[in-house]
Structure formats: C-alpha cells, structure tokens
Design goal:
By secondary structure, the protein is mainly alpha-helical. 85% of the residues lie in helices and 0% in strands. It is built from four helices and no strands.
Amino acid sequence: MNDAIRLSRAQRNVKFGIFINRIIEHPCKISKPVTRQLTKYKRQFEATVNDKVLGEVIQSNLRVLEQVELYAKARNAGDEIAEKRHLNESIRLWDEGSEITNRICEELS
C-alpha cells in the first residue's frame, strides 16, 4: 500500500513539474484557473510533506511552488523585474529539488 501511495505522490511531482513549465512558457497573463490549480497542488503537498521517503522532495516542491505563485502575481501585475527574479529563483530551487530527488533515488537503489 505504501508503495502505491508513494508512486502516486511521485507521479504528482512529475505532473507538477510539467504544469509549472507550461506556466513559464505561457506568453500571457496567468489565469485564475491556473492559480487555483497551484493552490490545489499546494494543499496536496502540504498534506503529504511528512512522507518519510519523499518528504524532502515535497518540501522542495513547496518552495518552488511559492516562487511560481510570486512569479504569476508579478507577471499579472506587469512587474518584469520581480517576474524575472521569481522565475530565476524557482529555476534554482527546481534544480536543488532535482539534486535531492537524485540523492533519494541513489539511497533507495
């Protein structure tokens, strides 16, 4: 049972990565449904952050999500400086999360 739950959480992490890439590539303002989906991901990650194996990855995703939310707000407000700052920070945090994921995969194998 735990393996199935962890697999579901890992799949959610992948879907989250795909989703935020689509946000960043979108050339226009960020719509309300997109921000609602970010909120949904946030609730899901907060509910599962205590996972013994994936907890660090989920915490990393929460930090990325926070920066993506700030990026969306800055983009919708037309603040290009803040937009670029939050985009760069989210990319940096995503790279850190990738390192955490790789480390966990190595520990588990």
